[in-house]
Design a protein that fits this description.
This protein has about 550 residues and is of the alpha+beta class. It contains 16 helices and 13 strands.
């Protein structure tokens, strides 16, 4: 019976089903962990006040958020140096986010559950999100304007909210002036410097050119001084106001409004208010720039850089992949050489991505980019323009990496088109080019789209080659802005995949960065899953459309 059962193939079916089920469970578990840890980070947690006894017997007050719980068996706890009572089976520890890093030197700490003598949830506990030094936890004491006390006690909270809203408006105006207006002036001055050097190298630097460039520089400097005066006035507005807050040990700290992003009291917030706060944090995460070594703020530059690179890669890889597939399927003689090329293309799809990165750095950046700098940008020497990693070389490198996917997918689509359609078009008087352009390629377009989407899905998740050809931890400017030529292909950029690596493994504050790793990973997974689902839908529609013709 057992031999017959094995011969029937049933054990292998069940084994395959078990393997698939195990993989699905693991994938769902990983995604569930990413969702809970990533999305839950933005929900406002309660701030607790603990009366805690230190191991030396000293009693102190701890204020913060409960982040995590660790339960360690007694035997393991004793091996790590903890003193355990005879009736204790486990050692329970709490990870508390205490903030106030500028005062205590750290904003996370582990505490022992057995040493917590009292726990309270005071209504007046306040969280201050700052632009540096992380969160502050404490109680609002007073509000100062120009160094003078304007509100304290119960009246301080509404005044503080109003002052912070005004400061945020001023800060937005400052950011606009610094990034847009002053940034454009600095860019124009740099272009004038390069133009002057270019004219000198070409022996065309004369009095007229010197007078013209000097006049343009003078105009830009006048504009620069005007914006600097505006910035000085704006900085005076926000630097003169501050909040006075009290820490858990009673110390009062004066925090300038210029360093505050928002304040809120999570212990008194209703569900509706928490939902509103949650939505604001999600929007901030998607639309703002990072801060605090990428452990706070948003990831918009990484999203923008990823999308921009993928779009450029798509524009580059599509025509080359389609042309190669059309030549091998429609024009090349089907023989040994063609089969060898197909084998080579398939093997290219299995080459490790870091190899493409090394090739891109050596050939595209150093050889091609270096020669472009010598021929077209000698005035920038010794600073490289295209002879350094940037958006263009990253896009071309990923286009080379994903080219086999587009070729194979397009060629499969061309192979599915019956020869009778080509013969009918030729019989009606169309040339081979017209048949290909007007009949064959439109029918193969779903397959081309499938290959493109699969290429995009792979490129969006690549990290290793990008580390060599253009991705950086923090890009000061976006590749696309209002300065001519608007799209700056030589600039470095941020990427979601590299952002996850950097925050997760290079961050100076691991505990603070961990939730952002999950949130960014979830966003990247959603992008890749969406692209792959689109590819599957297009592929299924293609099969249904041509199923009758294949029969």
């Amino acid at each position: 019976m057992i031999k017959l059962w094995f011969k029937s193939g049933s054990p292998w079916i069940w084994l395959n089903a078990a393997a698939v089920s195990t993989c699905l469970i693991m994938v769902i578990a990983v995604l569930g962990l990413v969702v809970v840890r990533g999305v839950g980070h933005f929900w406002p947690s309660q701030v607790v006040q603990l009366t805690y006894q230190e191991p030396d017997g000293k009693i102190q007050t701890i204020i913060g958020e409960h982040v995590d719980t660790s339960i360690t068996p007694a035997a393991m706890a004793k091996s790590t140096g903890h003193v355990m009572a005879d009736d204790e089976d486990t050692l329970v520890q709490y990870l508390m986010k205490t903030g106030n890093r500028d005062i205590t030197g750290t904003d996370f700490r582990w505490i022992l559950e057995r040493n917590v003598k009292q726990q309270q949830i005071p209504a007046d506990m306040m969280v201050i999100e700052r632009r540096e030094w992380g969160n502050f936890y404490g109680q609002l004491v007073a509000v100062k304007e120009n160094g003078k006390l304007v509100a304290e006690g119960a009246q301080a909270w509404p005044v503080a909210q109003t002052k912070i809203d005004e400061a945020l408006d001023v800060f937005k105006e400052i950011a606009h002036l610094e990034k847009k207006e002053v940034g454009a002036i600095n860019y124009s001055l740099d272009q004038l410097r390069l133009e002057q050097k270019r004219l000198q190298l070409k022996n065309r630097w004369d009095a007229a050119a010197e007078q013209r460039i000097a006049a343009e520089k003078a105009e830009l400097e006048i504009e620069y001084k005007k914006h600097q005066a505006q910035l000085s006035e704006l900085y005076k507005k926000i630097r003169s106001d501050s909040l006075v807050a009290k820490t858990e040990n009673g110390t009062e700290l004066e925090i300038p409004l210029a360093k505050i992003v928002r304040i809120f009291q999570p212990n008194t917030m209703s569900v509706v208010e928490k939902i509103g706060h949650y939505c604001v944090k999600i929007v901030e995460f998607l639309a703002d720039d990072p801060r605090e070594a990428n452990t706070e703020g948003g990831i918009f530059p990484a999203i923008f850089g990823t999308v921009m690179m993928v779009m450029m890669m798509s524009v580059i890889v599509t025509p080359f992949g389609v042309i190669a597939a059309v030549y091998m399927r429609e024009y090349a003689k089907q023989g040994f050489i063609t089969r060898l090329i197909r084998i080579a293309v398939n093997n290219l799809a299995g080459v490790p991505s870091i190899v493409y990165g090394v090739f891109g750095l050596g050939f595209f950046v150093y050889i091609l980019g270096g020669n472009i700098d010598q021929l077209f940008f000698p005035e920038a020497s010794p600073a490289p323009v295209y002879g350094t990693p940037g958006l263009l070389w990253a896009s071309i490198t990923l286009a080379l990496l994903t080219l086999p996917v587009v070729i194979v997918s397009t060629e499969e689509g061309l192979a599915r088109i019956p020869s009778s359609i080509r013969e009918g078009s030729l019989a009606l008087g169309a040339t081979k080019l017209e048949t290909l352009w007007l009949t064959v390629l439109p029918m193969a377009s779903p397959a081309m789209m499938t290959g493109l989407i699969l290429a995009v899905a792979r490129a969006a998740g690549e990290v290793a080659p990008l580390m060599l050809v253009g991705v950086v931890k923090l890009a000061p400017t976006l590749p696309l802005d209002g300065n001519y030529p608007f799209l700056h292909l030589d600039r470095k950029f941020m990427h979601l995949g590299f952002h996850i690596y950097d925050v997760g493994f290079q961050s100076p504050n691991v505990e603070a960065a961990r939730p952002l790793v999950y949130a960014t990973a979830l966003l990247l997974v959603l992008v890749i899953v969406g692209l792959n689902l689109a590819a599957i839908i297009i592929r299924n529609n293609l099969r249904e459309k041509y199923r009758a013709l294949e029969g």
